[in-house]
Amino acid sequence: MIWDVDGTIAETERDGHRVAFNQAFTGLGVPWQWDVPTYGRLLRVTGGFERLIRDMEGRAQAPASAAERNRLARSVHRRKNQLYAEIVAAGGICIRPGVQRLMDECASARIALAIATTTSRPNVEALLSNLFGTGWQRFAAIVCADDAPIKKPDPMAYRFALERLDIAARDAMAVEDSPNGLAAARAIGIGTLITRSEYFVADTFPGCAGICDDLDSAVTWRSGSAARTDIAALRRMHVAWINARSSRTPSAPSRSRHRPGPCG
Ligand code: XBP
Ligand code: MG
After folding, report:
1. Which atom of ligand 1 is nearest to the CA of 184?
2. CB 173 within 8 A of CB 153
3. Fewer CB in 10 Å around end: N or C, the chain?
4. Helix, coil or strand: residue 212
5. For the domain with range 2-10+95-248, which CATH number is right: 3.40.50.1000, 3.90.550.10, 3.40.710.10, 3.40.50.300?
6. Which of 2, 46, 115 to mutate to test the pocket of ligand 1 (most atoms within 8 A of CB)?
7. Domain ranges of the chain
């Protein structure tokens, strides 16, 4: 199970990263703020640094030269990450429903857990150590923006996670909350469960393996549904997704070459 972080494990964006960006703007004398809808539009750009650059391209108050905008984005992003860590340490970000339970179920079933995120490592470490304590080292692979600089929707983070886990794409499942995250996992053939987050609640997610409002709520997939996402639901969803892919892709590896994976 390869987990996205922001929006999937916790609702980090509106009350975490966005608030920290605004505090950094104020502290550094940057004359603008990001309100909730503005940040929602900017979230289509993955990566906090890239988000800053994209926003400045359309702002009259932003520095004129690309070099100056780059410099400003670097210092805002650095300060934002410090402030984000403070928000997390103060208990400002909670784990989403069902995440801890499903991770524990995976661990009991000896299903490896991994992380594939476009977020910088310090933010991932701040969040996971706060949510999971010392147990956050339970992940067999953690791929962050620092490891995979080409960000989602590029599949680089997922490719590196598969390499570190030493498994094939069809033997993994991803858990994501955003269209860019789904596109990244799908691009290398990983079946993806969508757990809707507040900023992507209106998206439709064509091509996902399954979808739910959160992991403790009803989950549906191509040929079934369950009251919540547990290991049994994941296995059935994964099989349905593999079967649907095989019927669309005649050249897919035959069943005899399929190594049994975590979800069937
Ligand atoms: C997460 C991101 C990140 C976070 C902020 O996307 O796009 O940019 O918003 O973190 P995903 P950084 O959930 O798809 O991985 O400031 O460290 O980039
Ligand atoms: Mg996300």
Report:
1. 14
2. no
3. C
4. strand
5. 3.40.50.1000
6. 46
7. 2-10+95-248, 13-89
Ligand number nearest to the C-alpha of 117: 1
Q: What angle do CA 260, 261, 264 make, to 5 degrees?
A: 80
- The model's pLDDT over 129-168, given as tens digits with 9 standing for 90+, comes to 999 988 777 899 999 999 999 999 999 999 999 999 999 9
Q: DSSP readout, 5-48?
A: -BTTTB--IIIIIHHHHHHHHHHTT-S----HHHHHHHTTS-SH
* 13-89 CATH: 1.10.150.240
Provide the phi-psi class of 100: left if phi over 0, else alpha when psi is between -120 and 50, else beta. Answer: alpha
**For the CA of 51, the nearest atom of ligand 1:** 8
Ligand 1 residue neighbourhood (C-beta within 6 Å): 4-7, 13, 17, 46-48, 117-120, 123, 145, 152, 178, 180-181
Sequence-distant (≥ 6) Cβ neighbours of residue 69 within 8 angstroms: 53, 56, 57, 62, 63
- Catalytically active residues, by annotation: 4, 6
Token pair 């994209």: residue: 54
Cβ atoms of residues 176 and 196 within 8 Å: no
